[in-house]
Amino acid sequence: MTEQKPVTDAAAQKVPALPDAQTVTEVQHYTDRLFRFRCTRPASLRFRSGEFVMIGLMGDPHPETGKQKPLLRAYSIASPAWDEELEFYSIKVQDGPLTSKLQHLKEGDEIILRPKPVGTLVHDALLPGKRLWFFATGTGIAPFASLIREPETYERYDQIILTHTCREVAELTYGRELVDSVRADEMLAEVIGENFADKLVYYPTTTREESPKMGRVTDLLRSGEIFRDLGIEGMSAETDRAMVCGSMGLNTDLKEILEGFGLKEGANSEPAEYVVEKAFVG
Ligand SMILES: Cc1cc2nc3c(=O)[nH]c(=O)nc-3n(C[C@H](O)[C@H](O)[C@H](O)COP(=O)(O)OP(=O)(O)OC[C@H]3O[C@@H](n4cnc5c(N)ncnc54)[C@H](O)[C@@H]3O)c2cc1C
Predict the structure, then answer these.
(1) Exposed site from 111, 174, 213, 223, fewest CB < 10 Å?
(2) Residue from 243, 280, 281 to probe ligand 1 pocket by mutation (most atoms less than 8 Å from CB)
(3) How far is 118 from 274, CA to CA, in rounded Å?
(4) Domain extent listing, the chain
(5) Of 95, 75, 33, which Cα lies nearest the Cα of 278?
(6) Domain 10-117: which topology?
(7) Which ligand 1 atom lies nearest to the CA of residue 78?
(8) What is the torsion angle, in degrees rounded to the nearest 10, for the CA atoms of residue 23, residue 26, residue 30 and residue 32?
(9) CATH assignment of 123-278?
């Protein structure tokens, strides 16, 4: 009788290669709701800083056929176009089909990445201006994490203001650490010029937990408090450009506020003064 191979055989356990698979190189958790990870980048993937792609994992096997289908979701690429790896900043939704699994990623695991980047939060969708505002809530900071590491951002504008609003202070950590690392980045300083970091203004706010600046960015804009804090007169269609990435509610409110300042919505095909993208659907 031939001896049965033990089921623990490494070959039997090896997961079949995923389609469009990329390997996770780093994982960092911030809170029980937020984490970031980096992965390899397909050599053929070209994208513009600020765009998003579809990423995911294989779904559970079908109860009858046992077949598995990819479970994909839209994700902003948080790393800049020049980076040799890709970075993503993710929510953990406990009963979310994808993120209930994605949150357990470890270095060496594989993810699926469909290499078709798209999106409106790109420089091409805005007309030239002097000041660029990034308005983010929660994971909506992801496309701006890409754009504040993009030299073109500093070449195009005299001032870049990143506002990030979260409920709690710990949810601001990713953005704060990123801004610190960008300001200290010697390569960016070499490419753009010594004083590039002076152009980047960071304006974090919280809505629930006590912090030095509290409130929704929409309220701070309506009351003019943000302008007083930053020593800015206000916004105008001549000088100001804006990119918005948050919940549906934030996006709708900000559109109204920006239009009130005379800014018009742009698109890849028709650049104007501001652009908007949903940070998630729901
Ligand atoms: C253009 C675009 C870009 C996106 N970029 C990112 C990104 O960079 N990082 C990221 O984490 N997600 C991003 N999302 C959301 C993402 O596609 C998924 O919805 C998210 O990963 C949760 O997937 P899920 O399958 O676990 O749950 P889903 O079934 O997709 O979502 C369940 C519920 O969780 C809530 N939810 C989903 N995503 C978020 C979120 N990011 N923040 C707060 N609440 C959320 C919503 O209420 C939603 O109805 C993006 C969505 C779009 C449309």
Answers:
(1) 223
(2) 280
(3) 17
(4) 10-117, 123-278
(5) 75
(6) Elongation Factor Tu (Ef-tu); domain 3 (2.40.30)
(7) 8
(8) 40
(9) 3.40.50.80
Q: Do domains 10-117 and 123-278 have the same CATH topology?
A: no
| Average pLDDT for 178-188 | 95
Beta bridge partners of 272: 126
Nearest CA to 175 among 215, 214, 209, 135?
135
Q: What is the pLDDT of residue 2?
A: 42
CB 99 within 8 A of CB 90: yes
- Interval 34-44: pLDDT, tens: 999 999 999 99
Q: The pTM is what?
A: 0.93
For residue 18, what pLDDT is reported? 66
Q: Give percent of the chain above pLDDT 90.
A: 88
Q: Which residues of 218-257 are buried (b: 16+ CB within 10 A; e: fewer)?
A: bebbeeeebeeeeebeebebebbbbbbbbbeebbebbbeb
Residue 195: the pLDDT is 87
| pLDDT (0 to 100) of residue 193 | 87
Q: Determine contact, residues 214/206, Cβ cutoff 8 Å.
A: yes
pLDDT surpasses 60 at 150: yes
By residue count, the chain amounts to 282
